[in-house]
Specification:
By secondary structure, the chain is an all-alpha fold. It is built from 2 helices and no strands.
C-alpha cells in the first residue's frame, strides 16, 4: 500500500497528539512500548496474510 501526502500529514498530527500526553520519562517509555507492540503485531499479521494468501 502506497502512502500519500494526506496520510503522512494525518499520521504526523496523530503522533503530535500522542506526544502531547508525554510529561516524563515513564510516559515516554510506556508510549514507546505500546507503539512497538502495535507495529510488531501489524507486521506479523501482514506477514501471515502474505504467507497464507488470505486474512486469517
Amino acid at each position: 500500500m502506497a502512502t500519500t501526502k494526506t496520510d503522512l500529514s494525518t499520521t504526523a498530527a496523530g503522533i503530535a497528539d500522542l506526544l502531547n500526553g508525554v510529561k516524563n520519562m515513564d510516559d515516554y517509555q510506556s508510549l514507546m512500548k505500546d507503539l512497538f507492540k502495535r507495529v510488531a503485531e501489524r507486521a506479523l499479521a501482514a506477514e501471515m496474510t502474505q504467507h497464507l494468501g488470505y486474512d486469517y
